[in-house]
Amino acid sequence: MGFAERKPIYEAIEHERNTKIISYVTSDRANAETQIGADCIDIFVDALDAIGPTKKISLLLHTNGGNTAAAWRLVNLIKTFCDEFEVLIPYKAMSAGTLISLGARSIVMTKQAALGPIDPSLIHPLGPQVGNGNQLARVPVSVEAVRGFLDAAQVDLNIKNENLLGQILNDLSNKVHPLVLGEIFRSRAQIRFLAEKLLNEHMKDSEKVRAIVDFLCADSGSHDYTINRREAAALSLPVEKPSAEFYDQLKAIHKDYSGEMELSVPFNPMTFVAPSSAANYQMVRGLVESVNNGSFGFVSEGTMFRTTVATPAGPQEQLQDQRVFEGWRAL
């Protein structure tokens, strides 16, 4: 499985739909996830230069999301090379992937495809920490979770006393650094601005635009809420249902890259490396592909060492990851 098997399908879709396809996949494999990021921009520039100015570009997208600013930059970059921009979603385009989709004149969704809320989660150097083995790891803070907490105090619990509200805010700032809270509220305003700006480019009904943004940014509830094709259409998003033949093509592409990247198989380093030994690894954790520019992968490679060390509590196994390369390269 690989680009050689997907390329003929890309070519067939391009011919049938009079378009040029760029495929962007970020891994959602458990313990080997990647996200939409600015590091893919140069790869997209090369792919778009190879295509040149054209009537239509279709972005085949599979992602759990990522950096909002990178998503905004990416959708605007693509649209400078074409008159018509569409997004193809075989399986999922969540969070920042949904933001990209809002900039499309049409969103082709299979029956199993999903969009999601675009409330960003913020990972900040001053963000809260939780234990991760012997280390502390920064955890993301949901913008809408913070808003929901404050709304619960003021609306649901109907707290009006200014002193009590001040104590609640002070307690929140003790849990989440004030600079992080400031960045959270800035991000909330930014994501709504970007979503409205993308929708306004191809939707003229301001009331519908506002309703879509309200739902995606707040009213849909938790960040892992999924929006299927029927609900996306009910929101007035420009959803297109693929023909039976087109559905089979999109499904075949998804099955192929999913198998190549082992997206359905959680990555477990402890089973990957035998006890008291080492193993080399190479994982493709992202793809940018086009007929004109070939296949590029976001690759992590190195050597993992599994050793047993003596501790006061007895022998314990440790895993060391000696990573020698991580980044984009031609496949």
Q: Could you explain the architecture of this structure?
A:
With 331 residues, this protein is an alpha/beta fold. It is built from 11 helices and 14 strands. The strands form 4 sheets. Strands 11-5-3-2-1-12-13-14 form an 8-stranded mixed sheet, sandwiched between helices. Strand 12 (277-290) and strand 13 form a beta hairpin. It is flat. The mean pLDDT is 88.
Secondary-structure blueprint:
Layout: H1 3-17, E1 20-26, H2 41-51, E2 54-62, H3 68-79, E3 82-89, E4 92-93, H4 96-102, E5 106-109, E6 114-115, E7 121-122, E8 129-132, E9 135-138, E10 141-142, H5 143-156, H6 162-175, H7 178-200, H8 206-219, H9 229-234, E11 239-240, H10 244-261, H11 269-272, E12 277-290, E13 294-311, E14 314-330
Parallel strand pairs: 1-2, 2-3, 3-5, 4-6, 5-11
Antiparallel strand pairs: 1-12, 7-10, 8-9, 12-13, 13-14
Helix pairs in contact: 1-10, 2-3, 3-4, 5-7, 7-8
Shape: flat
Major sheet size, sense and barrel closure: 8 strands, mixed
Low-confidence stretches: none
Task: Strand order, main sheet: write it out.
Answer: 11-5-3-2-1-12-13-14
Order of helices and strands: HEHEHEEHEEEEEEHHHHHEHHEEE
How many H/I helices? 11
Distance between the termini: 13 Å
Structural class: alpha/beta
Measured as a percent range, the helix fraction is 40-55%
Mean pLDDT: 88
Give a count of the beta strands, DSSP E runs of length 2 or more.
Answer: 14
* Strand portion: 25-35%
Radius of gyration: 22 Å
